[in-house]
Amino acid sequence: MVRKIKAKLVLQLRNQGLSGRAIASAQGMARNSVQAVIDAADQFKVGWNDVAEMSEGEVYSALFSGRGGPGSATRPAADIEGVVVPVE
Fold first, then answer.
1. Domain assignment of residue 15, given as a range
2. Is 54 within a domain?
3. In sequence order, what are the residues at sequence separation of 6 or more whose Cβ sits closer than 8 angstroms to the Cβ of residue 56?
4. Per the domain annotation, does 30 fall within a domain?
5. Is 67 exposed, middle or buried, given 0-12, 13-18 or 19+ CB atoms closer than 10 A?
6. Exposed, middle or buried: residue 23 (CB in 10 Å: 0-12, 13-18, 19+)?
7. Structural domain contains residue 19
8. What secondary structure, in 3-state letters, does 66-86 show?
9. How many CB atoms lie within 10 A of CB 40?
10. Domain total of the chain
11. Where are the alpha helices (DSSP H) in 1-88?
């Protein structure tokens, strides 16, 4: 099962002065995932004060539009039309 990173929590903890590594360690998140949130927030110039009143889903959607929303996969579906699997 794929879980979405808790982007709002990452921004809150970053606002409190924690490093990306400390956030990842304390929350059991992958460092690359935490860094992706930090990079997206920096790119869009979004900080804790901008997202404090938003829901977790709204924050995630704002930072990663088109990724992992309701009914969407985190990766594009594989194009398997015409694939033949040999039966032994």
1. 7-63
2. yes
3. 6, 7, 8, 9
4. yes
5. middle
6. buried
7. yes
8. CCCCCCCCCCCCCCCCCCCCC
9. 19
10. 1
11. 7-15, 20-27, 31-43, 48-51, 56-63
Cα dist. 79→69, 82, 86 in Å?
21, 9, 18
Residue 60 burial class via C-beta count within 10 angstroms: exposed 0-12, middle 13-18, buried 19 and up? buried
Whether the predicted pLDDT of 77 surpasses 70:
no
Q: What is the pLDDT of residue 5?
A: 87
- What's the rounded Cα separation, in Å, for the pair 87 and 11? 50
Q: Classify residue 77: in a domain, yes or no.
A: no
Residue position matching structure tokens 């903890």: 13
Indicate the SS3 state at residue 52.
Answer: coil
Tell me the pLDDT tens digit for each residue of 27-76. Answer: 999 999 999 999 999 999 999 999 999 999 999 999 998 665 444 444 55
Whole-structure pTM value: 0.73
